[in-house]
Write a structure and sequence with these properties.
By secondary structure, the protein is mainly β. The protein has two domains: 15-144, Methylamine Dehydrogenase, Chain H; 157-225, no CATH class. The protein has no helices and 19 strands. The chain has strands spanning 18-23, 29-34, 38-43, 48-54, 60-65, 77-82, 87-91, 96-101, 108-113, 119-124, 128-133, 138-144, 150-155, 163-168, 173-177, 182-187, 195-200, 206-211, 216-220. Strands 1-2-3-4 form a four-stranded antiparallel beta sheet, with no helix packed on it. A hairpin with a 4-residue loop joins strand 15 (173-177) and strand 16. The radius of gyration is 17 Å and the shape is globular. The model has no long low-confidence stretch (mean pLDDT 89).
Length: 225
């Protein structure tokens, strides 16, 4: 099968390397975060930057759109993480900072919302994962168990899911139960180096991890019951 891109477009505006990007839930917008400490929101219908999020004091390391659209209609809420040891919540329509989430003691490296958008997880080089109530912007729990910095975290993408996976510099992928705030399983032996990224399949039955050891591992058949 031959596949050819119909059009290539370059979106320019960041002043330093771009570290993360994600499409909005409506698919009309794209958010990109960079080491210039900013997030740009691009309107794909006009291929231009329409909103600039400024407020971090260090590089932006990750971002996530809240999967549910509420009072902010087309745009929704964005969570960002940064090397300034904080995460932030933003109104992506007007670029206004809603909340600054402060609890980590080192770089915040990963962000992930539950499928209902009520809880945000942030992972950090301080070896912890923080859980935040999105409505109140208050810390609701902490996962501790990795022996090194946590590069990435991702909630299982199901409406009733209570599973979060995390990948760490210690080379281990862990599964956590949101209800009991304890480790469900440590997936050890798949990697020989730090786990940099993890991702669930849409049905939540598979989780994949990517590592500095040049390997991708895939684990299957998970249930949050």
């Amino acid at each position: 099968m031959n596949i050819a891109a119909e059009k290539q477009t370059q979106l320019t505006g960041h002043k330093w390397q771009v570290s993360c990007l994600e499409f909005s839930p409506d698919g009309i917008h794209l958010a990109s975060g960079a080491w210039d400490k900013c997030v740009r929101i691009w309107d794909l219908s006009i291929l231009d930057s329409v909103v600039l999020l400024e407020g971090h004091d260090a590089p932006v390391t990750d971002l996530s759109w809240r999967p549910t659209i509420d009072d902010f209609r087309d745009f929704g809420i964005i969570a960002t993480s940064s090397a300034d040891n904080t995460a932030k919540l933003w109104n992506s329509r007007n670029g206004k900072k809603l909340e600054t989430l402060i609890d980590h003691s080192s770089w915040v490296l990963g962000t992930s919302f539950t499928s209902d958008g009520d809880v945000l997880a942030t992972s950090s080089w301080d070896k912890s994962i923080c859980l935040w109530n999105v409505q109140t912007a208050k810390l609701s729990g902490t996962f501790q168990g990795h022996s090194s910095g946590v590069w990435t975290c991702a909630f299982q993408p199901q409406n009733s899911s209570n599973l979060l996976c995390s990948g760490s510099e210690d080379g281990i992928l862990k599964l956590w139960d949101l209800r009991s705030k304890t480790t469900v399983q440590s997936l050890v032996g798949g990697h020989d180096d730090s786990v940099k990224s993890c991702s669930w399949s849409p049905d939540g039955q598979y989780v994949a991890s990517a590592s500095a050891d040049n390997k991708v591992c895939c684990f299957c058949r998970f249930s949050s019951s």
